[in-house]
Amino acid sequence: MWPKRISSIHFALALVFTVAAATGQPALAAKPATNAGSPPTTTPESVNFPGRHGVTLEGFLYRPAGPGPFPAVVALHGCSGLINKEGQPSERHADWGNRLAAQGFIVLFPDSYTSRGLDSQCKVSDRDVSPSKDRPEDADSALAYLDTRSDVKADAVSLLGWSNGGSSVLYSVEPRHAPKDVTADFQKAVAFYPGCRVPFETGKWKSRIPLLILIGEADDWTAAKPCEDMVAAAKAAGELVDIVTYPGAYHDFDHPSLKVHTQDGLAFTASGTGVAHTGTNPAARADALVRVPAFLAH
Fold first, then answer.
1. What angle do CA 13, 211, 44 make, to 5 degrees?
2. Own/partner pairs, 227-233, CB within 8 angstroms, 24+ separation
3. Residue 4: its pLDDT value, please?
4. How far does Cα 90 stand from its chain's mean position?
5. Number of neighbouring beta carbons within 10 Å of residue 105
6. The dihedral of CA 163, 133, 152, 241: what is its sign?
7. Close Cβ partners of 48 (under 8 Å, ≥ 6 residues apart)
8. Alpha-carbon torsion (119, 87, 107, 276), positive or negative
9. At what angle do helices 12-23 and 282-297 cross, to 10 degrees?
10. Which of 30, 87, 113, 269 could link 23 by a cystine bridge, Cβ 3.0 to 4.6 Å?
11. At what angle do helices 134-147 and 164-172 cross, to 10 degrees?
């Protein structure tokens, strides 16, 4: 099955022609399996840079070969955190970091949790790091750090996030969070399976930059319907916001190798039970592996 598309005419054509050129077939009909193989593996650079309120943010940076300057992506991890037991980016983050670097992007993962001495927050209801305030500030700090690097195209930095990081993207793109004291703002943003209910129900949510949301129709951790409603309202107001929903896909559908299973004890789920499915959906993952770089590149 292939994604149900709620298109935005303002920038969907760029995706269509980009993916069509890469595959030789119409973008929405083609199975983008050519991008699903393992990317070149690199060891990311460990970096530190100033955050807000006296926090020093730790992070990892994936970089293409060559002097640059390169377009860049600030990538925000989910509630389980950024790193694995070895202190390196976990499998999904490493996969995306390597893939985007292989396609010419510098990718910076700020670690919002380890930098503050925190572990996974998925089962914590009263979180010490807020996706509506602290993490947008972390994103802005990451953008300011990239602005100091000569190998980064300051006017070609985008924002990407998963789950709690995807929710943070929704808040980061609001006009009230426009960064200051940098050469240029984020140019585009992608949110994987964010929680849309709260920003939608405020009735005030807006995006100042083009935004693409990718979410599974079967997601019972962060439901797709509030995101569809939020996008419909934003598009009716003329905003450059779009959504792709994937039939049968759950949370974490883009993970390289996560068997579908249930997690319990979660602090926030669509059903309110604390139980939700998570795991790879090969068709949705394959589509996202082409769709995201194509969106960010144009």
1. 105
2. 227/194, 227/196, 227/200, 228/6, 229/196, 229/200, 230/196, 230/199, 230/200, 230/205, 231/6, 232/6, 233/200
3. 57
4. 15
5. 28
6. positive
7. 56, 57, 58, 59
8. negative
9. 110
10. 30
11. 70
Structure tokens at 124: 């914590």
Percentage of residues of the chain with pLDDT beyond 90: 80
Burial 36-52 (b: 16+ CB within 10 A, else e): beebeeeebeebebebe
Segments forming the whole domain that contains residue 191: 4-297
The residue length of the chain stands at 298
**How many Å apart are CA 240 and CA 8, to the nearest integer?**
7
pLDDT at site 220? 96
Q: What is the pTM of this model?
A: 0.88
* CATH value at residue 230: 3.40.50.1820
| Contact (CB, 8 A) for 209 and 185 | yes
Section 71-89 average pLDDT: 96
In three-state secondary structure terms, 79 is coil
Q: What is the pLDDT, as a whole number, of residue 135?
A: 96
Both structure tokens of 116:
């503050």
State the total domains in the chain: 1
Tell me: the pLDDT tens digits for 127-170?
889 999 999 999 999 999 999 999 999 999 999 999 999 999 99
Q: Which residues partner with 245 through β-bridges?
A: 4, 215
CB of 212 closer than 8 Å to CB of 243: yes
152 DSSP β-pair partners: 70
- pLDDT at position 40 is 75
Sign, Cα dihedral of 266, 270, 275, 281: negative
Q: For residue 203, what pLDDT band results from cuts at 50, 70 and 90?
A: confident
- What the block records as the tokens of 46 is 């460990």
Residue 144 CA to residue 138 CA, distance in Å, equals 10
Confidence of residue 3 (pLDDT cuts 50, 70, 90): low
Considering Cα of 201, then 123, then 275, then 279, what sign does the dihedral take? Answer: positive
d(CA 162, CA 122): 13
